[in-house]
Amino acid sequence: MNIAMVGLGRMGLNMARRLARGGVAVTAYNRTVQKAHDFAAEEGGAARAVDSIPDLVAALPTPRVVWLMLPAGTATDEHIDELLPLLSPGDILVDGGNTFFRDDLRRHEAAAKHGVRYCDAGVSGGIWG
Predict the structure, then answer these.
(1) Residues 36-90: pLDDT tens digits?
(2) Smallest Cα–Cα separation from 104: which of 5, 112, 125?
(3) Is 102 helix (H, G, I), strand (E, B) or coil?
(4) Which of 120, 52, 63, 119 is nearest to 87 (CA)?
(5) pTM of the full predicted structure?
(6) Which terminus of the chain is less hemmed in, N or C, by CB atoms within 10 Å?
(7) What gap in Å lies between CA 89 and CA 63, rounded to an integer?
(8) In degrees rounded to 5, what are phi and psi of residue 32?
């Protein structure tokens, strides 16, 4: 299985680590690109880093699974706005942030227009939850 993890803060980084150590091929992107490269070096062949959202999309086999672990609000909207035109029908976009449900309804509608499946999967419990 292949998955992209966008956002390598405390929770996103630990999720990416667990996925990589569990045998999932993780492609990582973070606005601070060095964090993605540090993660890939730490995990060896189970992970790779990319420097941009277009590179992230190009690196994944279809159908793509892109998991966002970003702060609610503007950061999430900006990444989704950049991702949607690059994704293909049948790709899956997961928002793991704790966003307001009305934002997710709006994002679901925008994703559907591109044929992208959108999943609101808010993660809670801190880095160990």
Answers:
(1) 999 999 998 899 999 999 999 999 999 999 999 999 899 999 999 999 999 999 9
(2) 112
(3) helix
(4) 63
(5) 0.92
(6) C
(7) 8
(8) -85, 95
Respond yes or no on whether the N-terminal peptide bond of residue 63 is cis (omega within 30° of 0). yes
- Chain segment 103-123, per-residue pLDDT in tens: 999 999 999 999 999 999 887
Helices (H), 61-116: 74-83, 101-113
What's the count of helices (H) and strands (E) in the chain, helices before strands?
5, 6
Phi-psi region of 90 (alpha: psi -120 to 50; beta: other; left: phi over 0): left
Q: Is the separation of the CB atoms in 115 and 89 below 8 Å? A: yes
Tell me how far apart the alpha carbons of residues 49 and 26 are, in angstroms, rounded to a whole number.
9
- When pLDDT is cut at 50, 70 and 90, the band that residue 19 belongs to is very high
pLDDT: is 75 or 101 the higher one? 75
DSSP 114: T
Residue 68: name the closest of 43, 89, 99, 41 by CA: 99
Strand boundaries in 32-128, DSSP class E? 47-49, 65-68, 92-95, 117-120
Token pair 């704790």: residue? 98
